[in-house]
Amino acid sequence: MVSETLEPLKIKPNDKKRVAYFYDSDVGNYAYGAGHPMKAHRIRMAHSLIMNYGLYKDMEIYRAKPATKQEMCQFHTDEYVDFLSRVTPDNMDQFAKEQVKFNVGDDCPVFDGLFEYCGISGGSSMEGAARLNRQKCDIAVNWAGGLHHAKKSEASGFCYVNDIALGIIELLRYHQRVLYIDIDVHHGDGVEEAFYTTDRVMTCSFHKYGEFFPGTGELRDIGVGKGKYHAVNFPLRDGIDDKTYHSVFKPVIKAIMDWYQPGAVVLQCGGDSLSGDRLGCFNLSMYGHATCVEYVRSFNLPMLVVGGGGYTMRNVARTWAYETGVCVGKEMEAELPYNDYYEYYGPDYRLEVRPSNMQNANSPEYLNKILTQVLQNLERTKFAPSVQMQAVPRDAEEDSKDDEDSNEVKEAKGGTLEERDKHVAPANEFEDSMDLS
To answer: What is the DSSP letter of 202?
Structure first.
């Protein structure tokens, strides 16, 4: 019996959002190596679909300034970032000790242009967050981001620089509370660890748990100190389908929105939770996956949307293109337009990822038990943390420059680090919680 699937989303008339879409045409040039499942090419495929569906007419498209070493060090250690900037396939033998120390090797290989690749994902998420802060857009999209496994001084799970943590740090300059939601099949361990001790960020991850990478994210991992009850983990089993997924996703997100009252939200849209993924074990259709985006969008908060995992390229590209349409509020034809990678989408050439007849190991009893405990934990946060409020000056100079830009592909202006640092939240609110060495 085929799993129950959701229907295409019905976009409400006039439900438009100002979307800033970040894309760097160089991103598809980087390769982890022959046989490696992570392929940056899927971002180029998604972009080709997005452009050929005409979504560029409904968005502003930017090529962000790559993140600098100094910017990466807002989260990562100097020593780790310096290593990433210096190591190459030609000199990697000289960095044998560092490769062991920083977990660079098999899953996270050294490849040509590694640091530039990290700069693209990091810079786009940081600039997306900065544009949200300046109220230049309602939603910022960076499909090259979502690298949620990277740690403060360690690569992990195909991720080197944690663009999400960098984006959240940027959002915290203007927003007292930020919500992070992760629908990748793998636990968002790097982001959770980064903010495990603070109540200014709530992390919420729906993921496969049990003999599965990275092995973290059990129900009882809820945060510590000020961050207690601000890490939400929903461990799932193989084969979860659309309707079962949303029976827990929607009530959890609604409870967080009601009780935590975030000022901004970051949504990681890992495509490895789709049915038929090379490394995944869930059974979500494209519409089931995209309904998460539509639901979070409906709360009308500043929203940073990033990519993540996804190892069946044609399905990831289809889904991220469709979800870009969801972000801008535009329905898309089921028949794929001709695009640069049309042959990848045969034999049907349609915009859909169907579920399979995979068995759903998530019983109603199991899910209800987890949901009950998660909601009980969340109820303890319903009195939103009291944080010192302060006026934040506008970036007047940047505003005037942005208004002069055309609506074509733009070079995003992130401002200097010194300018950004003028907007840091009170010193006692955040920096201590970042010391996780």
So the answer is: E
Residue length, the chain? Answer: 437
148 is in an annotated binding site: no
The tens digit of pLDDT for each residue in 30-42 reads 999 999 999 999 9
Please tell me the predicted confidence (pLDDT) of residue 360. Answer: 98
Say what the pLDDT of residue 9 is.
73
Count CB atoms within 10 A of the CB of residue 97.
Answer: 8
Architecture of the domain defined by 19-29+39-64+126-382:
3-Layer(aba) Sandwich (3.40)
Greater model confidence, 76 or 410: 76
Residue 434 pLDDT: 33
Would the annotation count 272 as a binding residue? yes
CB-based burial, 329-357: b 16+ in 10 Å, e otherwise: bbebeeebeebebeebbeeeeebbbbbee
How far, in Å, are 200, 226, 379 from residue 420 at the CA level? 19, 26, 35
Listed residue (134, 135, 197) closest to 385, CA to CA: 197
Task: Tell me: is residue 107 an annotated ligand-binding position.
Answer: yes
Bridge pairing between strands 201-208 and 178-182: parallel
Instruction: Give the residue ranges of DSSP H helices in 162-261.
Output: 163-171, 189-194, 242-260
User: Is 414 annotated in some ligand binding site?
Assistant: no
Name the maximum alpha-carbon separation found in the chain: 60
Is 245 among the annotated ligand-binding positions? no
Q: Looking at per-residue confidence, does 411 or 339 come out higher?
A: 339
The whole-model pTM stands at 0.88
Active site residue 149: yes
Does 157 count as an annotated binding residue? yes
Task: State residue 274 phi and psi, 5-degree precision.
Answer: -75, 150
Catalytic residue (one of 76, 148, 149, 423):
149
- Say which range, 11-15, 132-136, 160-164, has the weakest mean pLDDT: 11-15
Q: 411 pairs with which residues across the strands?
A: 63
Q: What is the mean pLDDT of residues 62-87?
A: 98
Give Cα 324 to chain centroid, integer Å: 13
* Cβ contact 286:352 at 8 Å: yes
